[in-house]
Design goal:
The structure holds 2 protein chains of 2 kinds. Chain A is globular and about 40 Å long. In chain A, the strands form 2 sheets. In chain A, strands 2, 4, 5, 6, 9, 10 and 11 form a 7-stranded mixed beta sheet that branches. A 4-stranded antiparallel beta sheet of chain A has the order 1-3-8-7, with no helix packed on it. Chain A contains no helices and 11 strands. Chain B is globular. By secondary structure, chain B is an all-beta fold. The chains are: A mainly beta, B mainly beta.
Chain lengths: ~120, ~110
């Protein structure tokens, strides 16, 4: 079974631009979560989607948004990019959302590395 | 979400068992303990998870104390490819990553 795929893998943008990142979950997985990883803040939760609905949201400004489609694929968007948005953006999928167990185990993709100049 | 405490770094000789400890004293009854690892610049890799009982899979073993306030991840025969940052997480509604343990496996 193919793993989580993320596109693009690398991206360079300039301040003020916007960016859209894509995530395709493992086949059959319906829950998708997004994380941001920076050297200073580590791995931080952005948001989680299940059945096209946002279930949880981390402590990020409104410039960060996401959505999920009926086929469970997800996109996240960052508008008005800032230098501090340079990071590795990770997507993880699971069969279902929840607090633990086999169905809720999250599997990560390789990430999209975003550089904002 | 319950907070976890892990040593910042550990060394292990190749071929020996690597025992990575984690404290999670505020864990509640229905919260699972998850372990992930991250090799430089790659996405975190799921290793194992457990609730109360000890667990074993092809990658590792997870030992959870009876009071569930701490756990140990055991890599039975560490190889150089096991060099990574290992994260112990008590899962609430989302995965909350701490600093993890940087494991260096040395020849």
């Amino acid at each position: 079974k193919a793993g989580v795929t993320q596109t693009p893998r690398y991206l360079i943008k300039t301040r003020g631009q916007q960016v859209t990142l894509s995530c395709s979950p493992i086949s059959g997985h319906r829950s998708v979560s997004w994380y941001q990883q920076t050297p200073g803040q580590g791995l931080q939760f952005l948001f989680e989607y299940f059945s096209e609905t946002q279930r949880n949201k981390g402590n990020f400004p409104g410039r960060f948004s996401g959505r999920q489609f009926s086929n469970s694929r997800s996109e996240m968007n960052v508008s008005t990019l800032e230098l501090g948005d340079s990071a590795l953006y990770l997507c993880a999928s699971s069969l279902a959302p929840g607090q633990g167990g086999w169905q809720e185990t999250q599997y990560f993709g390789p990430g999209t590395r975003l550089l904002v100049l | 979400d319950a907070k976890t405490t892990q040593p910042t770094s550990m060394d292990c000789a190749e071929g020996r068992a690597a025992n990575l400890p984690c404290n999670h004293s505020t864990i509640s009854g229905n919260e699972y303990v998850y372990w992930y690892r991250q090799i430089h610049s790659q996405g975190p890799q799921y290793i194992i998870h457990g609730l109360k009982n000890n667990e074993t899979n092809e990658m590792a073993s997870l030992i959870i104390t009876e009071d569930r306030k701490s756990s140990t991840l055991i890599l039975p025969h560490a190889t150089l490819r096991d060099t990574a940052v290992y994260y112990c997480i008590v899962k609430g509604n989302m995965l909350t990553f701490g600093g993890g343990t940087r494991l260096m496996v040395k020849p």
